[in-house]
Amino acid sequence: MKEYISKIEKLVKHAKQISITSHKNPDGDAIGSSLSLYLFLKKIHPQVRVILPNEYPDFLKWLPQQEEILFFTKHNKEAINYIDQSDLIFSLDYNDLSRTGDMQTSLENANADFIMIDHHQQPASYAQICISQPEIGSTCELVYEVLENWNRELINQSIATCIYTGIMTDSGSFRFPSTTSRTHQIIGHLIDLGVNNAEIHQNTFDTNSYNRLQLLGVALSNLKFIEEHHTAYITLSQKELDQHNFKKGDTEGFVNYGLSLKNVDFAVIFIENKEEGIIKISFRSKGDFDVNQYARKYFSGGGHKNAAGGRSELSLKDTVQKFLATLPKEK
Ligand code: 5GP
Ligand code: MN
Predict the structure, then answer these.
(1) In angstroms, what is the span from residue 193 Cα to ligand 1's centroid?
(2) What is the CATH number of domain 210-330?
(3) Ligand 1 pocket: which of 27, 116, 270, 284 to mutate (most atoms <8 Å of CB)?
(4) Domain at 2-204: CATH architecture
C-alpha cells in the first residue's frame, strides 16, 4: 500500500481539479467510498467533487455531505464540464468505464489521469494507478487502507461513518466470507472514531415502506426452488412492481431470500424494466460456484465470485427459459 500512497499523493498534489466517480446505480459501497475519499481530499485540496452517474436509493440518503454530490443525469452540463476540466479522476468500486452508463463517453474523453480503487475481478487497463484487490470485501475497506497509510489523523467521524456504511452493506452486515479479522479491526477503529454503528444499521435497514414489504411478499410467492440444481430464483414483472409503487432500491436484498433456503447455493432475481427494455438480473452464490463467470458467459454482466449482476434483452419469460436451460450444464 505504501508504494501506492506516494504516487497518489504526487498526482493529487499536482492536480488542478479532481473528480471522484463511481458506478451506475450506486450502492452503499460506491457512495460510502466516494464520500469518504471526498471528505478526506477536501481537507487537502481546494477543487474536488463526487460525480455519480445517477441517483441512488432513499435508504442511503442520510450520509454526511451527500447533498454535495453531482449526478450526471440530474446536473448533466455541470457534471460534463467538471469532468472535462478535471486532470485527475478516481474510479471507485468499478473497474471498467462501461460500468458508468451515460457518463462513459465523458470519462473516455477526459484528459486526466485515473486512479482506480476497486475490488471487482478482471480490471480494464485505463488507470495510471490501479489498486485492484478482488479478495477484499469492499472498496470502502480499501479506501480505509489508503487513507490510514496516507494520513490517519485526518480520518474523522464523518469519514468513518461513510466507510463503515460501505463495509457494512457490501459484507451483508459482516457475514460474507470476505469479512476478515482485518475488517473487524478497521470497524473497531471506526467505532473508536465516534461512528454510531447502531444508528447506521437503523438508518439503512429500518426504512421499509409498506409497499416494499408487500412487494417482498409478491417476490417470495414467486420464488421457485429447483432442488436438483440447488438453485432458487425470483421473478418480478413490471406490472407487479407498478402495483406496489416500486421505487429505486425497493428490491435490494430480495435475492438473498433465495440463497437462505437450505441446500441452495445459487440464487437469482429477474426484474423487468420496461423503460430500459431489459431484464435486470442479480446473481448470488455460496461457496465455489462463480457467478462472475456465469454472468459474463450468459448475461452480459459480471461482478464478484459470489455476487454479480447482468441483463437480458429477451422477455421475462424467455430470459427465465434461457436461464433454466443453462442449469444442467453449469450446476
Ligand atoms: P447487484 O446484483 O447488486 O446489482 O450487483 C452485484 C455485484 O455485481 C456488484 O458488485 C455490482 O457492482 C456487480 N455488477 C452488477 N451488474 C454488473 C454488470 O452488468 N457488469 C459487471 N461487470 N458487474 C456488475
Ligand atoms: Mn463494492
Answers:
(1) 31
(2) 3.10.310.30
(3) 27
(4) Alpha-Beta Complex (3.90)
